[in-house]
């Protein structure tokens, strides 16, 4: 494979992050980097159908291509290859490398193809960046940014100045509109802080148990001042509504004000509703990373194993707006979430609430 020759100027760039929702949200800083380097850059993404709604909502993306995945027949794969050829991309940036995507980029004749130097899939790329992500020495979104900046360098474009959250910027009125809508639907007091809690994991991450989430909420509520006592809004993913309702019942028995967030028919509507949160508590899940992109204050609960550390899967909100908790090291119990000190976590969350409060609400 020959080295691609490029010259400065705007480019048609295809970015691939075709795995889980949280992984895709952690690609938004890299997408912002590519778009802000030159607003005329045309940024397309290749994503699976279930993350496509948020790809359409992303302000850094110009076009969305659907990935049929590996289970579809050859006709779908040939159609995707034909589409890629017709788009005449100048560059392919694969944030998570697989042989199938690398092969498609090579067969499509994309002249500049860049990916992490991992596994044998790298043979399809003519630019490779050694990252060793499995060592988890930096956040995933920073690994993605590193790749985006390397691509810009090879395109002869300078990276933009310092990027800062939110990576999903919304109009100033958007949060107020979401709060008004929820207040009307659930008869909530808009003057009180709203703490969203997402106890589900979609089966993708080690998480606190429902009993631990209930204990955490009770500790926070018990230690909070009158102005700090929150309304608890429980969110749920597909198939998790019953668990959210059970947690609501538990919290109400403990004297807490709790409601289950109304279901939203579209993923982007659910995602936008998270902007109404004053604080978002969850495991390392897609909704936690949506909240991070919105720069909502977050408290995430992680296992301590190297591939899933709080550092590796850090949310991309501002540093002063995020907390992360995991089991203490040692004893080979990195995934034993029962070893997390909920009392200490509750105090840290209350401190975060105080740091971002203003007249009883958060900013």
From TrEMBL:
The keyword Lipid biosynthesis does not apply. InterPro entries: Glyco_trans_9, LPS_LOS_Heptosyltrfase. Keywords: Glycosyltransferase, Transferase. It comes from the Bacteria. It holds the Pfam family Glyco_transf_9. The keyword Transferase applies. SUPFAM superfamilies: UDP-Glycosyltransferase/glycogen phosphorylase. Gene3D superfamilies: Glycogen Phosphorylase B (3.40.50.2000). This is Glycosyltransferase family 9 protein.
């Amino acid at each position: 494979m020959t080295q691609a020759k490029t010259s400065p100027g705007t480019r048609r760039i295809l970015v691939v992050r075709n795995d889980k929702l949280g992984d895709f949200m952690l690609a938004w800083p890299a997408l912002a980097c590519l778009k802000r380097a030159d607003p005329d850059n045309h940024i397309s993404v290749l994503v699976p159908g279930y993350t496509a709604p948020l790809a359409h909502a992303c302000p850094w993306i110009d076009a969305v291509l659907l990935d049929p995945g590996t289970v579809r027949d050859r006709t779908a794969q040939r159609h995707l290859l034909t589409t890629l050829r017709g788009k005449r991309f100048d560059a392919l940036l694969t944030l998570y490398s697989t042989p199938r995507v690398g092969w498609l980029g090579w067969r499509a004749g994309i002249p500049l193809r860049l990916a992490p130097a991992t596994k044998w899939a790298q043979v399809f790329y003519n630019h490779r960046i050694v990252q060793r992500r499995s060592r988890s020495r930096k956040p995933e979104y920073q690994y993605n940014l590193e790749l985006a900046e390397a691509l810009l360098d090879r395109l002869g474009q300078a990276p933009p100045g310092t990027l800062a959250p939110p990576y999903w910027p919304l109009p100033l009125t958007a949060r107020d509109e979401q709060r008004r809508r929820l207040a009307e639907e659930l008869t909530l007091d808009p003057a009180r802080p709203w703490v969203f809690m997402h106890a589900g994991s979609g089966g993708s991450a080690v998480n606190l148990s429902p009993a631990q989430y209930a204990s955490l909420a009770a500790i926070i509520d018990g230690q909070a001042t009158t102005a700090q006592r929150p309304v608890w809004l429980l969110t749920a993913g597909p198939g998790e509504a019953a668990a959210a309702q059970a947690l609501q019942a538990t919290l109400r028995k403990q004297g807490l004000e709790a409601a289950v967030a109304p279901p939203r028919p579209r993923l982007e509507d659910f995602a936008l509703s998270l902007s109404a949160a004053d604080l978002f508590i969850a495991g390392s899940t897609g909704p936690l990373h949506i909240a991070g992109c919105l720069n909502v204050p977050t408290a995430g609960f992680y296992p301590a194993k190297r591939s899933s550390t709080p550092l590796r899967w850090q949310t991309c909100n501002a540093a002063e707006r995020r907390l992360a908790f995991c089991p203490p090291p040692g004893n080979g119990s990195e995934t034993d979430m029962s070893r997390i000190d909920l009392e200490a976590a509750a105090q840290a969350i209350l401190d975060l609430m105080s740091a971002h409060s203003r007249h009883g609400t958060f900013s």
